[in-house]
Amino acid sequence: MSEIARKVWEGSINCIVSYRGTECYLRVFRNSYFPLYFQLLSSYFNDEVSFLYTEDDVPVAWNKPIGVLYDLMQGTSPWRLSCGTKADEYPEYILPLTDVESYWCNQMKEACYIHNGNSKQMMSLSRDDSLTFWHSVVTHNQTTWFRMFAKLHLQFKRIPIRLYLNDSKLDKVVQWHGQTLGEAMCELIPELFDMKRWRNNDQVSVVLHGVEPPLQCPVDDLYRECVYVDGFLHLCVIVKPNLSDAESKAEGES
Q1: Could you confirm whether domain 100-150 is CATH 1.50.10.10?
Q2: Bridge-based pairing state of the strands 12-19 and 79-85
Q3: pTM of the entire predicted model
């Protein structure tokens, strides 16, 4: 296991979660899911937490890794969040909270299918191995997770990617079998990237685990070092406000 993979796994975000005037200071792992912290929050606030939303009242999806949510929503530091409970109306724009283990397992099966053309490796794990694999997600045990991940014998012919755009509702699964991250972006989002200008495009950035990897990086290397717990490489494409548009808007409002 490389030093990069270790640091990626240990990446965390400081949060301040509030509920009815009480605040809980919480440090969460990027490579994890918010529902895995709901029991702790429920005990702290003495109420059953069922969802979170930002200080701008934007619901936070539970089914994406925390680091992806933070990067996509461009969270503050610390990230200020509020709790919703079962007594509150559940947000209509996020997936209803279900069994997190089943959801994670289905994501891993999909990642296996993209790699190998089938999900046999994930489906053929013994019951004990499956429980150990999931428990490594719950306890955030990197050594055990990578040991179980290696049992899937992935071929790395196609890399499973989840691609997001911060200024749209784009959230799609793609598979990539080429070389560099820049080439992948040029093919997958040609309206934002092209081979002539992607190297110097300061209006668009690709964020992975809170950093902007060089677009010259081979995608398979990024995957091996930065894979998320669901077997996907989650890439957030951040489109920055156009400076000239912002200036024109400011002039119009003055």
Answers
A1: no
A2: parallel
A3: 0.88
- In tens, the pLDDT along 143-174 reads 999 999 999 988 877 899 999 988 666 777 88
**Identity of residue 63:** N
Please say whether the dihedral angle defined by the alpha carbons of residues 27, 33, 39 and 41, taken in this order, is positive or negative: positive
Sequence-distant (6+) residues with CB within 8 A of 221 are none
Please tell me the class of the 3-85 domain: alpha beta
User: In angstroms, how far is the first alpha carbon of the chain from the final one?
Assistant: 56
- Considering the chain, tell me which residue range(s) the CATH 3.10.20.620 domain(s) occupy: 3-85
Torsional class of 106: left (φ above 0), alpha (ψ -120 to 50), beta (otherwise): alpha
Cα–Cα distance for residue pair 50/97, rounded to 1 Å: 7
pLDDT digits (tens, 9 = 90+) for 105-141: 999 999 999 998 899 999 999 999 999 999 999 999 9
In CATH, the number for domain 159-243 is 3.10.20.90
Q: Say if CB 32 and CB 66 are below 8 A apart.
A: yes
Q: Where are the strands (E) in the chain, listed by range?
A: 12-19, 22-29, 49-54, 59-60, 79-85, 159-165, 171-176, 204-207, 233-239
Residues of the chain with CATH 1.10.246.190: 100-150
Q: pLDDT (tens digit, 9 = 90+) per residue, 182-201?
A: 888 888 888 888 766 545 56
Cα 162 to chain centroid distance, Å, stands at 8
